[in-house]
Write a structure and sequence with these properties.
This is Oxidoreductase YtbE. This protein is an alpha/beta fold. Strands 3-4-5-6-7-8-9-10 form an eight-stranded parallel sheet. The protein has a single domain, classed as TIM Barrel, CATH 3.20.20. The chain contains ten helices and ten strands.
Length: about 280
């Protein structure tokens, strides 16, 4: 299914519905700008907010959520909130404690999705058992991982009682991760993109510019539309109101198969973030 609106959702393998589109807040510092960004996203129809313990901004995100819900007249159940357990908390007890800390900072009673942030060798299985416990107790709606490659997923699923519902990874036209996406599709794991705009490095690319001009759209809008048509959940980061609005204006056009192919061919397996297999934790 191709998302037709900002409120459209994909159904995870446990039946939980997750918005195809949301706002990310990576490296947005605590303060009025962060609160305003989250409130603005909710105001203009975003229903998914993605943060993490290591971003050190969960309190501001929580404030933005509360104020945004109040002003938009929506309830907590209308939102999908994600956070992640950091590498230093990947033990069983420490992961559960980290979840409690994130909830407290966010001012929420539950999370919709909780992820293991990075596949730290020798540690992520204990953390996964903790996430399974939180899930079985009904304290989180869905659980998943971030930055896991195929061999990490295979290793985890050998012993896991519950397979991940989501894998959030770096994903953009220079890093299409086709084999990983195929593996996730085969196992019912929803792929989600972080850094979908490659931290702005693609915003003057000639091929993308040609396609954008054809549709009367920005390069960012074309990339985000490409994500959605590839069946990838996406969470672009922005703090500027006009960008938050622009990023979400991707449901009034559809890329042709030829345009999708041209964008797919830009892949160079190039990362702007760390390599999950060689990340100095």
């Amino acid at each position: 299914m191709i998302a037709k609106s900002l409120q459209d959702k994909t159904t995870l393998h446990n039946g939980v519905k997750m918005p195809w589109f949301g706002i990310g807040v990576f490296k947005v510092e605590e303060g009025p700008e962060l609160v305003h960004a989250v409130k603005t996203a909710i105001k203009y129809g975003y229903r998914s907010v993605d943060t993490a313990a290591i971003y050190e901004n969960e309190e501001g995100v929580g404030q933005g959520i509360r104020e945004g819900m109040r002003e938009a007249g929506i309830s907590r159940e209308d939102l999908f909130v994600t956070s992640k357990v950091w590498n230093t908390d990947l033990g069983y007890e420490s992961a559960i404690a980290a979840y409690e800390t994130s909830l407290k900072k966010l001012g929420l009673e539950y999370l919709d999705l909780y992820l293991i942030h990075w596949p730290v060798e020798g540690k992520y299985k204990d953390a996964w058992r903790a996430l399974e416990t939180l899930y079985k107790e009904g304290r989180v709606k869905a659980i998943g991982v971030s930055n896991f490659q195929i061999h990490h997923l295979e290793d985890l699923m050998k012993e896991a009682e519950i397979k991940p519902m989501v894998n959030q990874v770096e994903y953009h036209p220079r890093l299409t991760q086709k084999e990983l996406q195929s593996f996730c599709q085969e196992h019912g794991i929803q792929l989600e993109a972080w850094s979908p705009l490659m931290q702005g490095q693609l915003l003057d690319h000639q091929v993308l510019k040609e396609i954008a001009d054809k549709y009367g759209k920005s390069i960012a809008q074309v990339i985000l539309r490409w994500d959605l048509q590839n069946g990838v959940v996406t969470i672009p980061k922005s703090t500027k109101e006009h960008r938050i609005i622009e990023n979400a204006t991707v449901f009034d056009f559809e890329l042709t198969d030829e345009d999708m192919k041209r964008i797919n061919e830009l892949n160079q397996n190039y990362r702007v973030g760390p390599d999950p297999d060689n990340f100095d934790f």
